[in-house]
Amino acid sequence: MGPIMMDVHGTSLTEQDKELVQHPLVGGLILFSRNFESVQQIRELISHIRHTANKPLLIGVDHEGGRVQRFREGFSQIPAMGRFIEHANNNIAQAQQYAANAGALMAMEVQGVGIDISFSPVLDINGVSDVIGQRAFSQNIEQIAPLAKAFIQGMKSAGMKCTAKHFPGHGSVKADSHIAMPIDTRSFADISHHDLQPFRQLINENMIDAVMPAHVIFPDVDDKSVGFSTKWLKQVLRKSLGFYGAIFSDDLSMHGASSIGGYIERAEAAQEAGCDMLLLCNNREACIDVIDNANISIHQESKLRLSAMLATKPMNWQQMQASQVWQQLTQWNNLFLENT
Predict the structure, then answer these.
(1) What percent of the chain has a predicted confidence (pLDDT) above 70?
(2) What is the pTM of this model?
(3) Active site includes 178?
(4) Which domain holds residue 43?
(5) Residue 324 included in any domain
(6) For residue 154, which of 109, 119, 169, 262 sits 20 to 30 Å off, Cα-Cα?
(7) Which candidate in 178, 193, 223, 292 is catalytic?
(8) Residue of 184, 209, 250, 276 marked active site
(9) Residue 23 is among the residues annotated as catalytic for this protein
(10) 200 assigned to some structural domain
(11) Long-range residue pairs from 110-113, CB within 8 A, at least 24 positions apart, any chain
(12) What are the tens digits of pLDDT across the range 13-22?
């Protein structure tokens, strides 16, 4: 499984798409709202992608719930993560049940169309970052790990592996890394005792399968943003926290990735820092340039970590809709949405 996760522009494959998904360096593909018209269409597109690739291909999507849900029509509307603790009036046990239900429902539906993973959950705090906001489980750092754990347990009950993001935390910095270069000037001690807490706790509990680092610079630790930082990924995440799962770069086309240089420099730096898979989205020319010219390679350890992220027990859409579990979860979800 190669280290590049690419995207496609439309609702069907072009000849160039077909050529690229077959390239040995391409091991994954991420889907967006622009790729979706209907449940049937997205199922057919994914089936075509897998048939064309003719190799194990990790297919992902950002389907967190709330405002970050790429597929709408025909799918359940998953609540934003921040709504669980609010609706439970700060009753953590009740909020955990909501989170577990949402995690299971999301995973069943995403896998039901042939996708392996949603890049979920967000472990950031709902702090000063507008781009995070209610994507986070809580404004209280102590509540994030138990709520995220419940959501992950729901995902895993449906056979989906989780990706915790955005390590070590994006919620305490105002700038949006999609369009700016966020810099968090706090000390490592402050970050470790605050934003890093949910990651540490869930890694210790062996709950996290993969991590996505933030495009944020923490100058007290490194002058490189986290996804390009050996200090953050190899020393803190791997060595200090003992995390052995997959590491996905965030999209290398985001402005927060630009501090390292052009796309070739970004891809090389991300892999060197410890990323197993490099997301190259929304810039086909750059993706081709990286494939053709970057000094990146297929690492056996990365292949094993990424292969472990493939769906383990997915039902197809018809099987899912016929299952009592899905029917009960959709009934719960509809009631939750009506009452919030």
Answers:
(1) 100
(2) 0.96
(3) yes
(4) 1-61+277-307
(5) no
(6) 169
(7) 178
(8) 250
(9) no
(10) no
(11) 110/61, 110/63, 110/71, 110/160, 111/158, 111/159, 111/160, 111/311, 111/314, 111/315, 112/314, 112/315, 112/316, 112/317, 112/319, 112/320, 113/39, 113/42, 113/43, 113/46, 113/71, 113/317
(12) 999 999 999 9
